[in-house]
Amino acid sequence: MDIDLSPEETAFRDEVRAFLAENLPQAVKDGAAASPTVFVEPDIGQTWNAILNAKGWLGYQWPKEFGGTGWSSVQRYLFEKECALAGAPNLTVLGLKLVAPVIYTFGTPEQKAQYLPRILSGEDYWCQGFSEPGSGSDLASLQTRAVRDGDNYIVTGSKIWTTHAHWANMMFCLVRTDTTVKKQAGISFLLIEMDRPGVSVRPILTMAGDHEVNQVFLEDVVVPVANRVAEEGDGWKLAKFLLENERGGSCHAPKLDYDLQQVEIIAKSEPDGYGGLLANAPTWKRRCAKAKLGVQSLEMIELKILSDLAKGRQPGPQTSLCKLLASNLRQEIDLLAVDVLGPAGLQLDPTRPLYGDNAPPPVHSKEAQVATARYLNSRAWTIFGGTNEVQSSIIAKTVLGL
Ligand SMILES: Cc1cc2nc3c(=O)[nH]c(=O)nc-3n(C[C@H](O)[C@H](O)[C@H](O)COP(=O)(O)OP(=O)(O)OC[C@H]3O[C@@H](n4cnc5c(N)ncnc54)[C@H](O)[C@@H]3O)c2cc1C
Q1: Quick one: CATH architecture of 251-398?
Q2: Short-list 164, 167, 216, 166, CA closest to 190
Q3: Among 103, 245, 298, 344, who pairs with 107 as Cys (CB 3.0-4.6 Å)?
Q4: Which fold is adopted by the domain 126-233?
Q5: Nearest-CA residue for atom 38 of ligand 1
Q6: What is d(CA 265, CA 284) in angstroms, rounded to the nearest whole number?
Q7: Residue of 97, 159, 161 best suited for mutating to test ligand 1, as the one with most atoms within 8 Å of CB
Q8: pLDDT tens for residues 339-366?
């Protein structure tokens, strides 16, 4: 694997860097820095999406024919890295990176024409209706029923942990269309408008006080058969395709590196309690070095995946390895951020948002105000998109042959 950039790639990186320096608004950057959740709220996220869309860079992972950039895997990586290092918010991936590839790979021409432009324009905001009470890791056991009635399905059931369902106007959803076959074979993939009669959303507040996830109830919701992607019974195949993108579709290392750098900057002005600075304390330096090595190892695996993709190979179980390592590092770095700030890092302000004119005044600093909320929020990393135990099992079976 060659990790040196060509002159063209260096020029591309410089172009992205210059664009970010000019076009990433300070308010968006501040909002991202003060958001404890994985995805920022739409007022921040959609503003940033619109700026990228105006430049033609929002569909940076999409093929050109669907309004994407058609960039190479190296260009996509450089773009993600520069965005992370500039402090840009995480893009809300639900429409852009999860359902869009399903639609442009498996959708009908009508579905492609209807949904893809609206993802880029921000007219549609998507949520993911996979998990149910009782069906998380064992997703194939899902119970939400879709019964055929002429040209429609009648959908009944409930989805849980549905991120940003309270903002979304569209949900991609796994439903059971056949109860007589093997459980994986009876699942279909539907696109459901959230304003259809019978859809309701109940908030779930997470332990830091954030409203990020929800329970979605579906009571006799009429969904046209035309809203099904691929054939009836193909849902499991599409779900596996989508989950592989969710676990390995982005490079996590650059953002983790940026956050670790922020912690290291704070340590340069925080006392160690013995008359020196924390940044010089051996135990602290050891913890930071361990995290840094972890981030660098993750970056190498992510680059290996990119290199495989560039050669037309599917990454396979390497995406599970990335998800596992990135989740553990996320939690480690968020713990470092709490620890570096001492008692000030323990504040937990329940007010939201923590950015903008109405944000409560911080004690000590903005970083301190968000540290514990972010630490609590990042507990979710080892759960969503497949838990650490599930990723470990995949690695054990497919890589280690256990
Ligand atoms: C913040 C957050 C956001 C989320 N957003 C969404 C979303 O937008 N859409 C969506 O559909 N879902 C979402 N999820 C749900 C997420 O995908 C599930 O929580 C996850 O798949 C785990 O399922 P579960 O919660 O039912 O736990 P369970 O599957 O019940 O697992 C409980 C425990 O048992 C362990 N376990 C289960 N099975 C095995 C096994 N075979 N081997 C070893 N250990 C096992 C698990 O690792 C875990 O520790 C989100 C979750 C969180 C926390």
Answers
A1: Up-down Bundle (1.20)
A2: 216
A3: 103
A4: Butyryl-CoA Dehydrogenase, subunit A; domain 2 (2.40.110)
A5: 137
A6: 13
A7: 161
A8: 999 999 999 999 999 999 999 999 999 9
